[in-house]
Amino acid sequence: MRSTLPFLATLAASLVLSIPTGLLGCGGDGGSGSSVNTGVPDILTTEEPKAGFQFLETTYTVPGTNAERTIRLNVWYATEDLEGTTARFNLISQDPNSLLDASVSVPRGRAPLMIYSHGDRAWGGSNNALARQFVRNGWIVVAPDHTGNTFFDNTVPRPFEFDVVRAYDLQATLDFMANLPSDHPLAGHVETSRVLIAGHSYGGHTAWIAGGPELDLAAIEAGCAPNCVQSELDAYAMYEPDSRVVGVVALDGGIGATRVADAGFASMIAPMLFMTPTDDAADQALFTRSAGADVTWVQLAGACHESFTGTLSCPTLELSTSLPITATYAIAFGIRHVLQSNDAALLDILDGTTEVDPVVTFDHHD
């Protein structure tokens, strides 16, 4: 029998149980930050949690095309500041709960990392609500602006190799966080050997690629014929999944047969949390096709495409319902697979034993 978790009132629970050595420090390397939550996600619903925020930047060379690429990084972290300068991500988006250049509450040891991939023509700060909930649970979150595919910087037509370039962006982001400048307050305090990738819409497609299914290079080449450029094909052929990725979350974003054949899902290196609205034939088809992988499918009745980000309201499901559900499952999934927690209440959420909310339909295959 399922039990119901009244998470709107009681998800702030089960802090610091057991966690791999090095993710939580005890003295030694100092730090004043909060301990990492390894139990049921602590989701603040009575108000918006706050987080420190800053912009960073990294440049790398894209394999295959050898193009030099610079991406801006949106970084959220713990701070003890209660007020400060509102972070403005672009001309149309800001978040008063992301405090620009706030003081850094340095983690005790190394904090877990979530890297987020935004959707088509969105921006790295577009899911700040989810980022701040992760920070509340002891994580650091980094979201690259996918240069050439943001609201104010969108290349048309999209380069053929761009699907895999976005995945390279995530690897470059991870490399940067693993090698922060020594004078950065978070240097040495970010755990990058085991990380979570999440993404919405086109970012969900990117998360699927990051999860490591075998790319169907024959189908990819057929898709660009007769105007194939070898360097574009090489970008796909040279892509190798990053073994540091141990969990992936796709928020209403899938991947089609023109990129991955059904058999290719068996090669995934990381389990997938697939969150979608209900009753979508394409989502059902993808869940069926990915039967060779470890996929948990969570559907939200009444959800809209932006129900998982809060960028737009949804007339059939309040954001006050959908956003805490999204955060609960995404953070729980990260705690399980990045922190390797075996907390019983956490596992009950992730195997469907606990009903997080009546709007949720839960399914899983591995």
Structure explained in plain terms:
The protein is α/β, with parallel strands linked by helices and 366 residues long. It has a single domain, classed as Rossmann fold (3-Layer(aba) Sandwich), CATH 3.40.50. The chain has helices at 7-10, 128-136, 162-178, 202-210, 217-224, 230-237, 281-289, 319-337, 344-350; strands at residues 3-4, 51-61, 68-77, 86-90, 93-100, 111-117, 140-144, 149-150, 153-154, 190-200, 245-251, 272-277, 295-300, 354-355, 360-365. Helix 3 (162-178) crosses helix 4. The two termini are 22 Å apart. Residues 1-30 have low confidence and may be disordered.
Write down the CATH class: Alpha Beta
- Low-pLDDT parts are 1-30
CATH topology: Rossmann fold
Number of domains: 1
State the total count of DSSP E strands: 15
Strand content: 15-25%
In short:
With 366 residues, this protein is α/β, with parallel strands linked by helices. It has 9 helices and 15 strands. The chain starts with a strand and ends with a strand.
Features:
9 helices, disordered N terminus, 11-stranded mixed β-sheet, 366 residues, Rossmann fold, alpha/beta, two-stranded parallel sheet, single chain, 25% strand, 15 strands
Topology:
Layout: E1 3-4, H1 7-10, E2 51-61, E3 68-77, E4 86-90, E5 93-100, E6 111-117, H2 128-136, E7 140-144, E8 149-150, E9 153-154, H3 162-178, E10 190-200, H4 202-210, H5 217-224, H6 230-237, E11 245-251, E12 272-277, H7 281-289, E13 295-300, H8 319-337, H9 344-350, E14 354-355, E15 360-365
Parallel strand pairs: 1-14, 2-5, 6-7, 6-10, 10-11, 11-12, 12-13
Antiparallel strand pairs: 2-3, 3-7, 4-5, 8-9, 13-15
